[in-house]
Amino acid sequence: MQNFAAPRDNKKTQSNNIESVRHSLAHLLAAAVLKKFPTAKLGIGPNIEDGFYYDFKLPKPISDSDLAEFEKTIRNFISQKLDFSGEKITPLKAKKLFKAQPFKLELIKDFTKEKKGLTSYSTGRIFVDLCRGGHVQNTSEINPGSFKLTKIAGAYWKGSEKNAQLTRIYGVAFQTKEELDSHLKALEEAKKRDHKKLGQELDLFTFSDLVGAGLPLWTPKGTLLRDILDDFVWQLRNEKGYERVDIPHITKKELYEKSGHWDKFKDELFIIETREGHIFAMKPMNCPHHTQIYARKQWSYRELPQRYASTTKVYRDEQTGELAGLLRVRAITQDDAHVFCRPSQVKEEIFKIWDIISEFYGKFGFELSVRLSLHDPRHQEKYLGTEKLWKESESVLRELVGARGIRAEEAPGEAALYGPKIDFMGKDALGRMHQVATIQLDMNLPERFDLFCINEKGERERVVMIHAAIMGSIERFLSVIIEHFAGAFPFWLSPVQVQILTVTDRAINYANEILGNLKSNNIRVATDFRNES
């Protein structure tokens, strides 16, 4: 077997190999857990943004007091100056090495089937893991004061509810203790701003076990907040010539078979069988429905662009473990629009959408950056259409972003099923980045649904489809702005702009007079006339 140490780079120090530090800490966490629970079964333990985690099947539940004990054990391991070393191993040796670890054996089987090489990584003599590497060379490179185990959560093996439920332990790690302290302070502030907590306190939304997980119920105040946001989007779209359309929430499966969604998204669909035996699905997106509105008649090139928009629900069968407040739900409200235009009109239409996005997010003080989300040519099976169409679409978006004078990050593999995207990333008050609005260029659905116009020569000409979402998921956007403003919304957005309080019953008549004046000026008012003095 070929042995090798963790790669050494004399220029690399603790200050610039933080990802290796985080990955190494995940292994040390697993070693600490095995020291306390020798029969624990190991899942996976990667480094992630700001830290790391490891999944375990444990013999008994653990608490925060256990995290403190694991931290102490990890620091002891760090002080031992243990080497990390890797070894390429055969499937036979891997099975022997991890014979008591069923999840590792499953991974070995998967990797062998996929013809991927197997590697084990040892940490001194205390721990060995099935791992591709990316570690420090020695634990002395890890600052023992710059990491912390932060929380315990549940997770399903391989992310599927059909599999075993594991215990996930999260940790964060930075180059210095000062960075760690700053991050922990930000986490505390984020807890105070948690939209799930503030949403209940402000009486914006609620959840019901009888209704189901991932299905928020909106109160009068929350509904008003949603309407204010949606009205603002419609105001901006109306100025650009968009028209409202309305579509049903279910469809025959044949629509999604033709669009390609049935093959790619079938597992995420809520499927309904009618009494007559027909198969319908709750719509997970709106674009196929909008194509059918366009396809209702023959269009002259003089009538393009056609701009359709709906604020409507879509439904996705998300796994319970992935649901998170408003951030990820099963019933999603989208402010969705689709433009059907000629290729020569794409630039103007995308710039109109870009202007809407800039004005909308400027109202909230969001600092926007742009990401160009492209397909991954190594996995063409994940996408609709030919490589030629994808290259053409991506070339158009690159040109448009350049014409706007913007330097965009490129993200291969982040494209939508049917086309590349311009994703807008917004930074909130805590410095966190969120994907907010998106513009997608689609040459595939017009091909699949044979969408065309009649051009100047009287010939059929294929149209292009542009997908545009300003807020995207209204639920997700609300989770962002609730935390961004810490619940203290600006005056124009607040569901209650003025509250009238009386200190004695004698003031009620005057208070009602004020109430009437404010309402006549479209001020949103609440009253509290209780006599509790």
UniProtKB/TrEMBL annotation:
Keywords: Aminoacyl-tRNA synthetase, ATP-binding, Ligase, Metal-binding, Nucleotide-binding, Protein biosynthesis, RNA-binding, tRNA-binding, Zinc. The keyword tRNA-binding applies. Residues 220-490 form the Aminoacyl-transfer RNA synthetases class-II family profile domain. One of its GO terms (molecular function) is threonine-tRNA ligase activity. SUPFAM superfamilies: Class II aaRS ABD-related (SSF52954), Class II aaRS and biotin synthetases (SSF55681), ThrRS/AlaRS common domain (SSF55186). It is an enzyme of class 6 (ligase). Its EC number is 6.1.1.3. Pfam families: tRNA-synt_2b, tRNA_SAD. InterPro entries: aa-tRNA-synt_IIb, aa-tRNA-synth_II, aa-tRNA-synth_II/BPL/LPL, Anticodon-bd_dom_sf, Thr-tRNA-ligase_IIa, Thr/Ala-tRNA-synth_IIc_edit, ThrRS_core, tRNA_SAD. The keyword ATP-binding applies. GO terms for cellular component: cytoplasm. It catalyses: tRNA(Thr) + L-threonine + ATP = L-threonyl-tRNA(Thr) + AMP + diphosphate + H(+). Belongs to the class-II aminoacyl-tRNA synthetase family. This is Threonine--tRNA ligase. The lineage of its organism: Bacteria, Candidatus Giovannoniibacteriota.
